[in-house]
Task: inverse folding
């Protein structure tokens, strides 16, 4: 809104003068850093802020640019609270937003046995936490499994690397690897 103010001045000799000034009142800018968000480790959050002519995000950790309204935050495993500063003319306002990193899923497993002769039956016991889905690769290229606690028979000789990818409800994953299940050739004497 705007308003006119009138000033009337009289000096000691009774001389008078008046003047009018118009004062324009503008609404304060609103700094809006957007809603808090949660991402998976090593993924990106697209931040969107508004309310001014110039922008500054602090800390700059994990941001592609810290002086634009819509930077991209790439975080590994630590959550970060960002303070967003907006300038509009002479006005400076702040807002905060938190980018949380969901590290709730932890893949882990054991197996028994870890070596033997071919046609080696191995039982895998899932020790993952925070997961709702699993993908097992047994390293021999023959099969994968989505079972909680699968078993697998190694029918070829060799050394194999087993990989378990555990996924939580948000879609975040963690990977556990057991390097070397050893299946050896059977020695047989045929007469």
Result:
């Amino acid at each position: 809104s705007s308003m006119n103010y009138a000033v009337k001045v009289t000096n000691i000799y009774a001389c008078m003068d008046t003047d009018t000034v118009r004062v324009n009142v503008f609404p304060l800018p609103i700094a809006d850093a957007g809603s808090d968000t949660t991402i998976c480790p090593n993924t990106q959050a697209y931040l969107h802020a508004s309310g001014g002519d110039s922008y500054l995000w602090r800390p700059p950790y994990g941001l592609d640019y810290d002086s634009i309204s819509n930077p991209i935050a790439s975080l590994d495993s630590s959550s970060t609270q960002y303070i967003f500063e907006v300038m509009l003319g002479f006005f400076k306002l702040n807002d905060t937003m938190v980018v949380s990193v969901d590290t709730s899923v932890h893949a882990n497993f054991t197996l028994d046995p870890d070596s033997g002769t071919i046609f080696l039956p191995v039982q895998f016991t899932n020790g993952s936490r925070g997961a709702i889905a699993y993908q097992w690769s047994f390293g021999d290229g023959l099969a994968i499994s989505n079972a909680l606690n699968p078993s697998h028979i190694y029918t070829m000789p060799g050394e194999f690397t087993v990989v378990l990818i555990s996924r939580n409800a948000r879609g975040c994953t963690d990977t556990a690897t057991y390097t070397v299940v050893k299946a050896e050739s059977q020695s047989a004497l045929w007469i």
